[in-house]
Design brief:
The protein is of the alpha/beta class. It has helices at about 15-20, 45-55, 65-70, 70-75, 90-95, 120-125, 160-185, 215-225, 290-295; strands at about 1-5, 25-30, 35, 40-45, 60, 80-85, 100-105, 115, 130-135, 145-155, 200, 230-235, 240-250, 260, 265-270, 275-280, 285-290.
């Protein structure tokens, strides 16, 4: 059983690790090209590449696999291909290479939250549960038949980063449970209900800017959804002011205005308010609100909404 594995971020490492631990023959890992990272723009390999090389697995990298990778993949003669947060669309020619096709590990309960950012959107929209779907990949965006699914609860106050880690483990476990039925050609393929499908967009920094006219619940969900990246922010002293953690408060006041600033910092919302817990001033480091207030004078009535 020759398997090609396609993935890019940290999320894709656990399933690859599980494949190796369970004795599956991963003949190659396909990932995106190395990219400049951070302020110094240091050329950095994708996490999956780093892990694969540490295990002695061949790694191939493409900017556009549809244009560059077809012949390489054919030469590897895979029986099955597995994708997990790969980040590129596969052409029909690539989908047809492996006799058992291509399956994908997707971090939502399809058909809900198709697309690039299902974990962010589940938290952003205040969902109480999510899960993993193992699906057969087709030419659409997460439109293929469902093979297996498993649900988990989204924990109270859970951030995107925390849920990301739990879903990665769940995806790895569900993949190993599901693979035998695929290999033995006993898997059941269930068509998705396209009428109830929803799509997610690629996350950009502006999506993380807080609109204080929204309800406190929506603002807190936004803060959780964009922790750790790109990190929810507002403006303070004409600079971006990052908020990593906050909770809802029953106090009321004008949206975007400070309504309490003694041993805590509470900002008014369109409905109720938000008490900030972990923040980062421009040029500073993340700190709890007590430490921040000791070094920064904030007055009731100041505007965090501009």
């Amino acid at each position: 059983m020759r398997i090609i594995y396609l993935g890019t971020p940290d999320f894709a490492i656990k399933p690859l690790e599980k494949l190796i631990e369970n004795g599956y023959d991963v003949v190659a890992v396909i990932t995106n090209k190395d990219k400049p990272v951070g302020r110094k723009q240091i050329l950095t390999a994708p996490p999956v590449k780093q892990f694969a090389l540490s295990k002695g697995i061949k790694v191939l990298q493409y900017d556009k696999i549809r244009l560059e990778g077809l012949e390489d993949l054919k030469a590897l003669k895979p029986d099955l291909m597995i994708t997990c947060a790969f980040g590129q669309i596969l052409s029909k020619e690539i989908l047809d290479i492996a006799p058992l096709g291509v399956i994908n590990i997707h971090a939502s309960l399809l058909p809900k939250y198709r697309g690039a950012s299902p974990i962010h959107y589940a938290i952003l929209n205040g969902e109480t549960e999510t899960g993993i779907t193992i699906m057969k990949t087709d030419v659409g965006i997460d439109t293929g038949d469902i093979i297996s699914q498993e649900k988990i609860d989204i924990l109270d106050g859970e951030t995107c980063g925390e849920l990301f880690d739990r879903l990665s483990i769940l995806g790895a476990d569900l993949l190993i449970k599901t693979l035998p039925s695929i290999i033995e050609k006993k898997a059941k393929f269930i068509k998705q209900d396209d009428e109830n499908a929803s799509y997610t967009k690629i996350i950009d920094k502006q999506m993380a800017k807080i609109d204080w006219t929204k309800s406190a619940k929506e603002v807190v969900c936004q803060i959780r959804a964009f922790n750790p990246m790109p990190t929810a922010f507002t403006m303070f002293e004409a600079n971006p002011f990052k908020i990593y953690k906050a909770i809802e408060s029953d106090l009321s006041g004008q949206a975007g205005k400070v309504i309490k600033a003694d041993n805590s910092l509470v900002i008014g919302c369109g409905e109720k308010s938000v008490e900030l817990k972990i923040v980062q001033k421009a040029g500073g480091k993340p700190m709890n609100i007590a430490d921040f207030l000791r070094g920064n004078k904030i007055s009731v009535g100041e505007d965090f909404g501009k």
